[in-house]
Amino acid sequence: MPTLDLLNILTLAEDILDDPIGKDAKKFARQIIDECSEDMALVAQWASAIRETDLSLEREDYARRIIEWIETLLAKADSPNQTLCEDNSDDMAIPA
Fold this sequence. Notes:
Elements: H1 3-18, H2 25-35, H3 41-52, H4 56-78, E1 82-84, E2 93-95
Antiparallel strand pairs: 1-2
């Protein structure tokens, strides 16, 4: 997945975390789902869970999970010894 898409998802999840009961939380979660490719199914599931609950603490928990996952992927992309595959196989690192 392109870095810009990951950053978009990260920003949306941070916005949800900032205001989990706000009127835009479900909209932001829908945008995350729409951004996710097949290899990001877990992130899409967490975003779906945000849409399904009205509980602030649950939304915060799922938003944190998304943030942590995306930050991990971005850290892998920044690693000098690894690059992410261009075919959206983000979790498969290959030697640089």
